[in-house]
């Protein structure tokens, strides 16, 4: 078995599966970290967040339906006020852009929206990885397009909301999560001469890999070491997006350091 797979624990059974015992252990750790008093607040925040998420989705759907109905009425009535129609279209476009920047409404969760957005970023990474198994170039193109589009979307959302990098904008976290895994995936691609499967990071015995990367990203995104914090001063949407991308670079450096450490320990052992 390839040593990379052995180091990660895949197929060795050393870490077992994510069974109910593992879930209980994670909950106990969360309880210790947050404290028992935080749980009701966390639960209320989750409920309120889900309500906001569905509310945002319904608002976009409502505006879209209204815009379609206006378009149908306008097609049947040439005298319809084009200015009102244009205003309705602009209103829908603005709400839709904000909805995207807020991670399809996830960013409206009042409790730790960046963390929930980062979780959605794991799903985006898994999707890109699955596509890469079929066609790496397509996956790479989607990654780059998503990054560039996020800059424009976040910039537009800032202007619409009238705030500088508001906490509700989480598209930057979503787009940054695949960057956290970029160096690791590229190394495995060269080492194994094949793209790693989604199970490499999200399997029942390997979930800790994605969890570790996720926690490392949240740490650097919150602490914002140099030059992560300074990058927030970049103009337009770049200031929103680049701090998360640089936090992801730090994650790559941590992964590299761990990999080198394991290799040295193996060589000396």
Describe this structure in words.
It is a single chain. The chain is mainly alpha-helical. It has ten helices and no strands. It has a domain at 112-269. It is globular, with a radius of gyration of 22 Å. Mean pLDDT is 77; it is low at 1-18.
Terminal Cα span: 18 Å
Question: Roughly what is the average pLDDT, rounded to an integer?
Answer: 77
Say how many strands there are: 0
Overall, the morphology is: globular
Largest sheet descriptor: none
Secondary structure tally, helices: 10
Secondary-structure element order, as H and E?
HHHHHHHHHH
C-alpha-based Rg, rounded = 22 Å
- What low-confidence regions span 5 or more consecutive residues with pLDDT below 50? 1-18
- The residue fraction in helices comes out at over 70%
Global structural class: mainly alpha
Blueprint (SSEs and pairs):
Blueprint: H1 3-8, H2 20-34, H3 38-76, H4 82-101, H5 113-134, H6 136-161, H7 171-192, H8 199-202, H9 207-223, H10 238-268
Helix pairs in contact: 3-4, 4-6, 5-6, 5-7, 6-7, 7-10, 9-10
